[in-house]
Amino acid sequence: MLAVLLGRDTERAALEALIERVRAGMSQVIVLRGEAGIGKTALLDAVADAGADLRVLRVAGVEAEAEFPFAALHRLLVPHVRDLDGLPATQHQALSVAFGLTDGPPADRFLVSLAVLSLLARTADRGPVLCCIDDTQWLDRESLNVLAFVARRVHAEGIGLVFTVRTGTDDVAALEGLPVLLVEGLPHGDALELLRTVVDGVIDPKVAGQIVTATRGNPLAITDLSASLTGNQLAGALLLPEPLPVGSRLEAHYLQQVHRFAAQTQRWLLVAAAEPQGDIGYITAAAADLGVRPEAADEAERARLITLGAEIRFRHPLVRSAVYGGATSSDRRQAHQALAAATSRGADADRRAWHRACAALQPDEEVAADLVLAAGRAANRGGYAARATFLTRAAELTPDERARAGRLLAAADAAFTSGAPTQAHLLLGSIDPDLLDPTGQGDRLMLRARTIVALGAERGMAQVSATCLAAYEAFRVDDPDLARAALLGAIDGSMASEYLIEGTDLRQISAAVTGRSNRGETLTDLLLDAFAVSVVDVADAVPLIRRATTWLATGEVSDPTLLTHYLTGVTLCTRIWDDRTREAILHRTAAVARRTGALQVLEIALFALATHETTLGRLETADELLLEVHQLRSAVASTPYMWEVFRSPEQIGWRCVPDAEAHIGRARTAANWLGMGASAGLADLGSIILDLGRGNYAAAAATGVGLVEDDYAGAYARVLPDLIEAAVYAEDRDRAAHALATLDGRATTSGTPWARGLLERSRALLAPDSSAEALFQSAIATLRDTAAVGDTARAHLLYGEWLRRQRRRKDARGPLRTALTMFEELGAPAFAERARQELLATGETARKRNPETAGDLTPQEAAIAALARDGLTNPEIAERLFISTSTVDYHLRKVFRKLGVESRRQLGRVL
């Protein structure tokens, strides 16, 4: 049979190529997808045999085991658990907790994923590794998510992953985007050959053709159908049954076989089907409790439906599902009740609790409480998907309706933490809020706010602030700490939604903050007060903002507090042009998020850091950060619109990429759909930068006016210098003067060198000729001492342009040459071309800069090269980019070859 299966040229060629690639030290992933019985497992057997010289790790999903966290992953990696000691400390701890090898706080699911990637890569250092994962649709969700994460990040480690997935299953969305090989029925000739192989007697050619056609070449259907037909039917002497038991009826065919067995055999098979790990001891004990002797299994074994050994194995998962699904609910409950009594080992307490739950017919608080304990044990290992399942079933069995509502809420929270916001949303919708106490009502609202954002729901972000305010009202009397957290959530929601906010507004949020009770001197209190005061007058809020943000940047702040509060601090820094504190907070947050595996926080922090670097004009650093963001985005998953808002429109504007307007337009559309006004504002900023670089001053001014006139509590103060430049060049001096008056107040309030330099540059554009030059020179001197290289370059450009308009062409060449060089080094082609044209107008020839060799690097190669240049080791780079050390080494070798260097020390010279 195996030889016939390997006759499938497409599958064979793809799997042979995978084996050869892995042998050569590279990595590859294939998902084999096909209907039940089509031969996926046989192909997996074949690839394992062909790769026998590799380190082959195998695991198969078991439907009854799908609720136990990390169960499949543990079975896959058991041979290499001893290698955990070689992992980074945080990864070692995370995987040890997930596998129940040690106690500790629940690990972030992404940190577990990084640990598995590192473990497999270390194993591959001793020889290529082939992971064969069968029946992926029945893996527990934690194991599936980890393996999907790994599959997206292997490259040059010598790791192969082959998954098999049954067509029509919806539980494998985590594998979406991986290479898929559809496994279809055998070609007609091969199917006939298989049929002749499995039939001992004579088979009529017409009957053979009917069987092959009816089964569509499905090997399992051919084998089992031919075995169920009589010799006369196969020889053509008797008609074949109609319809033939194939396709979707294959499970029914197995059930018919089972129903022909003695009652004792059927009951023994049901017990075996209900035991998730095929534990022979538990099955035997449970069957005995039901009055069934071990010999009852003999009939099923002779029929080759099961294999007896250290554990019970069914011929095919369809046999197990046929046995279990075909039994009456009463018989299933009896089987689970017997298994619950037989499952005696302490390590199997969760399995015992699940058997008891499956045996329950009516609400039963004792059984429900047992499930709650199992849910707690799952959470302690980081198994939040299992916790959600246990708690959902516990709620179903809970007699008291208020306790039931509380357990559903806890299940929703666990589902959200596990990365299943849709499940969390559905569970939240099943809760009657009136059955919750005030704290529970507040928790439900806060979880709802997080869920609608994670789902990427239409206008979801716009609804967050109002939802958090409602949560605040629920928490206000009984839990001041949670009330303050809800207010902070409302503030963060308002900062993200800006003008798109729904159901409330800034003044309502500010009034709630000002009127809160139990005011203290915590970091949360400082941030709340800073926000409330800034809504009325930013100048009055500056001392509060500086205290709070300095605390975040340099003070004693716990990891959870920093990860919860950083975004509020960053936004407040932006409003007062405090680039240094903003940068310190973001770097500190990114470091904590990396260490703790909080990848969703890390993604947002890195994007904010990339936006910060772009605003300063440090575009190459922003590129490197955006590459990390996109690596993370593929890990945490998202909707297409959520991808678009992480494209950095401002970076696109500076880079002036092909079809820049279309890219920025898509980002703006996505932001508006999601209710993310701040992201829509970033798109407008991208348009302004793009238009200023190209000299489309009227368009830039119009966009700037739209942002500034609807300014959201000072959020767009940094647009004012752009608006002034655009309005002056568009000959709308009145508009420019109005913007300058606003800028004067904002920049003076800020007092940072960056703000003062931009104010001086903007004043110079509107100043009389007698004083403009001194202002330009002062602006350049002030900005030169800041990190804002983009604004410094633009100050040189504007000064040079002013000098040329004063007919001082010779004097203009110096600042224009400086501007051109700086823009070329930044990678801002539109602004560089604007400077070049001005130089030409002075009579000086300015040739375009030749592309550097470094431009031949891919984005990932450039990011790795930059990190190596900055002194990071290969393991440190691997942790930063969520790839393996082998992949870093592979790309660095390519970088060295492309750049013509031989060591890391030489990278600084060419990058």
Automatic annotation (TrEMBL):
Pfam families noted in UniProt: AAA_16 (PF13191), GerE (PF00196)
Entry's Gene Ontology cellular component terms: cytoplasm
PROSITE patterns: HTH_LUXR_2
CDD domains named among the record's database cross-references: LuxR_C_like
Cross-referenced SUPFAM superfamilies: C-terminal effector domain of the bipartite response regulators, P-loop containing nucleoside triphosphate hydrolases
Keywords from the named record: ATP-binding, Nucleotide-binding
Name used for this protein in its record: LuxR family transcriptional regulator
Organism: Micromonospora radicis
